[in-house]
Specification:
single chain; 296 residues; alpha/beta; Rossmann fold; eight-stranded mixed sheet; 12 helices
Length: 296
């Protein structure tokens, strides 16, 4: 059985970013106008989303564990001149409902499918941060006729890693002290020279998630068949990852020979917030590669 490194533990512990106090409204846009709505998921849970721009192809951004759609506020406007851009709050996060009986990554994928169906999106590139990456793969399995590509953001580092023993230690720590454990590991997902204000903002936000929902989703992630998901997806899968944790490209290619990764230097686990300009440039590059059929 493979053992997890400390770095991989950070990734798993915050396969990251819950519902806390309702967020303030998105900033007034200088470009395309955005609007927010709610739609019922497959089990009746209300799912909040924001949409901006218009175009033949859609970009749909999926946040990670204990985050929400506001983590993509910059990208919502940066890409709305050329695409329909959608950001979603998964159940249990942000402005969406939390009355779900069975917390699984497949259920979270159903939340995304509900938004895609409601907006009648026909050609979608999914962009998923951390746990949002595996959720995006599940969405691609659910609606393969509508998804044309999956882009992970600091995720899919090593889909074949066996982490069962590590997860049990993780659960024990969270059950003993959810807030303190969350705080420790969120702060560990930034580089030493990261902006202190951003570290505090993200740590406070993520660790405000309901412990019941947070633990349920971590348990769901621990038993999720990630390698099977990657193997089943028939569209291009790419990751834009930071340098803190190595990406096992060759290992991932055992499940998807076309998998590839780009590294954004100087970033921790949140490149879309820490290195916005560089992240947007790489994201645009990957989008062009997926839509043109060329290789990176």
């Amino acid at each position: 059985m493979r053992r997890l490194t400390v770095a991989t533990l950070f990734v798993l512990l915050l396969a990251a970013c819950g519902p806390g106090e309702e967020k303030t409204a998105l900033p007034v846009p200088t470009g395309p106008v955005a609007h927010s709505e709610r739609v019922s998921s497959f089990d009746g849970v209300p799912i909040a989303y924001t949409v901006a721009g218009e175009g033949p192809g859609a970009l749909l951004f999926i946040h990670g564990w204990a985050c929400d759609r506001y983590y993509w506020a910059s990208q919502l406007y940066d890409f709305a001149d050329t695409h329909t851009v959608v950001t979603v709050d998964l159940a249990g996060h942000g402005d969406s409902g939390a009355g779900r009986a069975d917390w699984t990554l497949q259920a979270l994928a159903g939340d995304v499918q509900a938004v895609v169906d409601h907006l009648d999106l026909r050609s979608v590139i999914l962009v998923g941060h951390s746990m949002g990456g595996p959720v995006a793969l599940e969405v691609a399995r659910l609606i393969p006729d509508r998804v044309v590509g999956v882009i992970g953001v600091d995720t899919l580092h090593d889909v074949g890693v066996d982490s069962r023993d590590a997860w049990e230690r993780i659960f024990a720590r969270y059950e003993a002290g959810f807030s303190a454990t969350c705080t420790e590991f969120v702060k560990g997902m930034f580089l030493e020279d990261a902006d202190a204000g951003l570290v505090t903002e993200i740590t406070d936000d993520m660790c405000d998630i309901s412990p019941e929902v947070g633990l349920a989703l971590l348990r769901a992630y621990s038993v999720h068949d990630l390698s099977g998901s990657l193997a089943d997806v028939e569209v291009p899968v790419r990751s834009i990852n930071g340098p803190m944790w190595p990406t096992n490209v060759e290992g991932n290619r055992r499940y998807d020979p076309d998998f590839d990764v780009l590294i954004i230097e100087g970033s921790g686990h949140f490149p879309m917030r820490e290195k916005q300009a560089e992240f947007d440039m790489l994201l645009e590059q990957v989008i062009e590669e997926i839509t043109s059929g060329e290789t990176i």
